[in-house]
Amino acid sequence: MIDAKELALAREHPRGTERRRLLPYRAALNDVAAYAALSEADRDVVVRWAETRRRIKEEYGIDHDPGNLADPLIPASRLRVHVLEGERLAARRSAFGDPGGDLIAAVSGLRRSA
After folding, report:
1. What DSSP string runs through the chain?
2. pLDDT tens-place string over residues 24-47
3. Which residues, at least 6 apart from 76, have a Cβ–Cβ distance to it below 8 Å?
4. What is the pTM of this model?
Protein backbone atom coordinates (compact mmCIF):
# COMPACT_ATOMS: atom_id res chain seq x y z
CA MET A 1 0.00 0.00 0.00
CA ILE A 2 1.20 3.50 -0.77
CA ASP A 3 1.26 5.53 2.43
CA ALA A 4 0.69 9.24 3.06
CA LYS A 5 4.43 9.94 3.44
CA GLU A 6 5.22 8.46 0.02
CA LEU A 7 2.36 10.40 -1.58
CA ALA A 8 3.50 13.63 0.06
CA LEU A 9 7.03 13.20 -1.29
CA ALA A 10 5.72 12.43 -4.77
CA ARG A 11 3.42 15.44 -4.64
CA GLU A 12 6.15 17.80 -3.47
CA HIS A 13 8.82 16.54 -5.88
CA PRO A 14 7.06 14.63 -8.69
CA ARG A 15 9.66 15.13 -11.39
CA GLY A 16 12.69 14.30 -9.28
CA THR A 17 10.98 11.33 -7.67
CA GLU A 18 9.89 9.97 -11.04
CA ARG A 19 13.40 10.37 -12.41
CA ARG A 20 14.95 8.51 -9.47
CA ARG A 21 12.36 5.72 -9.59
CA LEU A 22 12.13 5.18 -13.34
CA LEU A 23 15.53 6.08 -14.80
CA PRO A 24 16.85 2.51 -14.40
CA TYR A 25 13.85 1.34 -16.46
CA ARG A 26 14.18 3.80 -19.33
CA ALA A 27 14.42 1.10 -22.01
CA ALA A 28 11.45 -0.77 -20.53
CA LEU A 29 9.36 2.40 -20.60
CA ASN A 30 10.02 2.80 -24.31
CA ASP A 31 9.31 -0.81 -25.28
CA VAL A 32 6.51 -3.01 -23.98
CA ALA A 33 8.47 -6.21 -24.68
CA ALA A 34 11.42 -4.87 -22.66
CA TYR A 35 9.02 -4.05 -19.81
CA ALA A 36 7.55 -7.57 -19.93
CA ALA A 37 11.07 -9.04 -19.80
CA LEU A 38 11.85 -7.29 -16.50
CA SER A 39 11.79 -9.35 -13.34
CA GLU A 40 8.55 -9.15 -11.39
CA ALA A 41 10.35 -7.21 -8.65
CA ASP A 42 11.49 -4.60 -11.16
CA ARG A 43 8.01 -4.41 -12.68
CA ASP A 44 6.66 -3.90 -9.16
CA VAL A 45 8.76 -0.74 -8.84
CA VAL A 46 7.23 0.68 -12.02
CA VAL A 47 3.69 -0.42 -11.05
CA ARG A 48 4.02 1.21 -7.64
CA TRP A 49 5.19 4.49 -9.15
CA ALA A 50 2.45 4.41 -11.80
CA GLU A 51 -0.15 3.97 -9.04
CA THR A 52 1.46 6.81 -7.08
CA ARG A 53 1.19 8.98 -10.20
CA ARG A 54 -2.47 8.03 -10.64
CA ARG A 55 -3.18 9.05 -7.07
CA ILE A 56 -1.34 12.40 -7.16
CA LYS A 57 -3.08 13.21 -10.43
CA GLU A 58 -6.47 12.26 -9.01
CA GLU A 59 -6.02 13.83 -5.58
CA TYR A 60 -3.84 16.87 -6.38
CA GLY A 61 -4.13 17.41 -10.13
CA ILE A 62 -0.40 16.89 -10.71
CA ASP A 63 0.44 15.35 -14.08
CA HIS A 64 2.55 15.96 -17.16
CA ASP A 65 2.35 19.56 -18.35
CA PRO A 66 2.32 19.54 -22.18
CA GLY A 67 2.97 23.29 -22.19
CA ASN A 68 6.30 22.78 -20.42
CA LEU A 69 8.71 21.23 -22.91
CA ALA A 70 11.17 20.46 -20.11
CA ASP A 71 8.62 18.45 -18.08
CA PRO A 72 10.04 14.91 -17.80
CA LEU A 73 6.87 13.38 -16.33
CA ILE A 74 5.28 10.70 -18.45
CA PRO A 75 1.54 11.41 -18.62
CA ALA A 76 -0.08 9.21 -15.94
CA SER A 77 -2.58 7.74 -18.41
CA ARG A 78 0.16 6.76 -20.89
CA LEU A 79 2.23 5.19 -18.10
CA ARG A 80 -0.79 3.17 -16.98
CA VAL A 81 -1.51 1.87 -20.49
CA HIS A 82 2.15 0.90 -20.94
CA VAL A 83 2.28 -0.93 -17.59
CA LEU A 84 -0.92 -2.87 -18.24
CA GLU A 85 0.16 -3.82 -21.75
CA GLY A 86 3.55 -4.98 -20.45
CA GLU A 87 1.93 -6.97 -17.66
CA ARG A 88 -0.50 -8.52 -20.15
CA LEU A 89 2.45 -9.55 -22.33
CA ALA A 90 4.38 -10.91 -19.32
CA ALA A 91 1.31 -12.95 -18.31
CA ARG A 92 1.02 -14.25 -21.90
CA ARG A 93 -2.60 -13.16 -22.15
CA SER A 94 -4.09 -12.18 -25.48
CA ALA A 95 -6.24 -9.43 -23.96
CA PHE A 96 -6.89 -7.60 -20.73
CA GLY A 97 -9.41 -4.84 -20.10
CA ASP A 98 -8.35 -2.06 -17.76
CA PRO A 99 -10.70 -2.19 -14.77
CA GLY A 100 -9.71 1.36 -13.77
CA GLY A 101 -8.91 2.48 -10.25
CA ASP A 102 -6.03 1.10 -8.23
CA LEU A 103 -3.31 -0.05 -10.62
CA ILE A 104 -1.60 -2.26 -8.05
CA ALA A 105 -4.87 -4.18 -7.61
CA ALA A 106 -5.40 -4.39 -11.38
CA VAL A 107 -1.90 -5.78 -11.94
CA SER A 108 -2.29 -8.19 -9.05
CA GLY A 109 -5.51 -9.51 -10.58
CA LEU A 110 -3.90 -9.84 -14.00
CA ARG A 111 -0.95 -11.74 -12.56
CA ARG A 112 -3.21 -14.09 -10.57
CA SER A 113 -5.24 -14.88 -13.67
CA ALA A 114 -2.16 -15.86 -15.67
Report:
1. ---HHHHHHHHHSHHHHHHHHHGGGHHHHH-HHHHHHS-HHHHHHHHHHHHHHHHHHHHH-----TT-TT--PPPHHHHHHHHHHHHHHHTT-S------S-HHHHHHHHHHT-
2. 999 999 999 999 999 999 999 999
3. 50, 53, 54, 57, 63, 64
4. 0.93
104, 48 contact by CB (below 8 A) = yes
For residue range 77-100, what is the model confidence (pLDDT) as tens digits?
999 999 999 999 999 999 999 999
Which among 65, 61, 105, 62 is positioned nearest to 87, based on CA atoms?
Answer: 105
Kindly give the interhelix angle for 40-60 and 4-12, rounded to the nearest 10 degrees. Answer: 70
